[in-house]
Automatic annotation (TrEMBL):
This is Esterase. Coiled coil: none annotated. Residues 205-403 form the PHB de-polymerase C-terminal domain. Pfam families: PHB_depo_C (PF06850). PANTHER family: BLR0908 PROTEIN, POLY(3-HYDROXYALKANOATE) POLYMERASE SUBUNIT PHAC. It comes from Marinobacter salsuginis. The lineage of its organism: Bacteria, Pseudomonadati, Pseudomonadota, Gammaproteobacteria, Pseudomonadales. Gene3D superfamilies: alpha/beta hydrolase.
Length: 405
């Protein structure tokens, strides 16, 4: 009933949003007599903030229409290479043919936000790499007829996508997918699959969540799986295409994200109010660029969510050496030829330093010369794959690692 109640509250707020939007325009328009009333701009700004806080945020676009190759600007188009019920493999195809550029598959997290959250990651890698990304679908839009989707299915998708790209593919897993991507690589290596990744970069994810547990890790161990199923899993209401599919709703995940840094978000919206009142266009634009992405969330398939909670965050299967895929034990020691890089942020409050580096302890057959660990000082979770530290410090090391693999 929670999902249904959430949709009803959205619908109930719509007339109020329309009314405040109209009043805001009347209070701002220079030809309106209301704009000359004392406090008109402050009231209009308050209405504007209300509108931003209550509107529905759709799936953001990547908006990466060009890049620079060898000092020349070239066009970029998005091409769907492979479609599956719960994801599609997207190619950022450049208008120039550069056969020597490494193929890079970026595995985006299926953890609440859309793949476009990695826009900055893609943008920085595009000039020198042939970039692909896993574009996960919002579970509320996947009909029940498409079947279920769990952690094993996620691994199957990763293997299929890597095989689609073929040999000599480099893989970058950001946050949540580090566990299934490492498992997929281990299975491919053990099977002598010719498409086994040439290199694997794992970024800020819970290979071993027992190391310096963060708030999300502690929440997972504080409650049993039945609690998560009872409180956080809800059926999708009509008229969504995925009506009656059980999901972990995106709005619940978003509430968790916001609560972790509640004061910062309150300050951000106070700042938005002042910027609207004072007509600071650039500040308004920067605020909305961030929150249009941050507040756009998707539902997760319930089976996948509960599998991840149990196997990754409660029982630590991969770190303990008992992770299985469809009944088959996953052996990271089977990885011998794939180069391994782990990347962490010093101030990461979602996957603390050490959790991702633990992959090196599992992949014992990779030669030391083909390993690399990078800890970026002074950055939190999102700063690892977006922002100035990513562009200036992390990405150059990742590019060098891929080039030498």
């Amino acid at each position: 009933m929670m999902y249904f109640a959430h949709e009803m509250s959205r619908a109930a707020l719509m007339p109020l949003r329309m009314m405040t939007d109209t009043q805001s325009k009347l209070l701002r328009h220079p030809l309106s007599p209301l704009s000359r009333l004392p406090g008109a701009r402050s009231i209009a700004s308050a209405y504007g903030v209300f509108g931003d806080l209550t509107r529905r945020y759709p799936k953001p676009a990547f908006n990466l229409h060009s890049t620079v190759c060898d000092g020349e600007e070239v066009d970029v188009s998005e091409v769907i290479v492979q479609r599956k019920p719960f994801a599609q493999l997207k190619h950022f195809q450049r208008s120039v043919s550069r056969s020597n550029d490494p193929k890079l598959l970026i595995v985006a997290p299926l953890s609440g936000h859309f793949a476009s959250l990695l826009r900055g990651t893609v943008k920085e890698m595009l000039p020198d790499h042939d970039v692909y990304i896993t574009d996960w679908r919002d579970a509320c839009r996947v009909p029940l007829s498409a079947g279920d989707f769990g952690l094993d299915d996620y691994i199957d998708y990763v293997i299929d996508f890597i095989e689609q790209l073929g040999p000599d593919t480099h893989v970058l897993a950001v946050c949540q997918p580090v566990v299934p991507v490492l498992a997929a690589t281990a299975l491919m290596a053990e099977d002598k699959n010719p498409a086994t990744p040439r290199s694997l970069a794992l970024m800020s994810g819970p290979i071993d969540g027992r190391i310096d547990p963060t708030a999300p890790c502690e929440l997972a161990t504080k409650h049993n799986l039945a609690w998560f199923r009872r409180n956080l899993v809800h059926p999708v209401p009509a008229p969504y295409p995925g009506a009656m599919r059980k999901v972990y709703p995106g709005f619940l995940q978003l509430s968790g994200f916001v609560s972790m840094n509640f004061d910062r978000h309150v300050d951000a919206y106070r700042g938005l109010f002042k910027s609207m009142r004072d007509r600071e266009v650039d500040k308004i634009r920067r605020h909305r660029e961030f929150y249009d992405e941050y507040l756009a969330v998707m539902d997760l398939p319930a089976t996948f969510y509960l599998d991840t909670i149990k196997r990754v965050f409660q029982e630590f299967h991969l770190a303990r050496g008992c992770f299985t895929h469809r009944g088959r034990k996953v052996n990271p020691a089977a990885i011998e030829k794939t180069a391994l890089m782990t990347i962490e942020g010093e101030k990461d409050d979602i996957s603390s330093p050490g959790q991702t580096r633990a992959a090196h302890d599992l992949c014992v057959s990779i030669p030391d010369a083909r390993r690399l660990h990078h800890l970026q000082e002074g950055v939190g979770h999102y700063g690892v794959f977006n922002g100035s530290q990513w562009r200036e410090s992390i990405a150059p090391r990742l590019k060098t690692f891929i080039g030498q693999a």
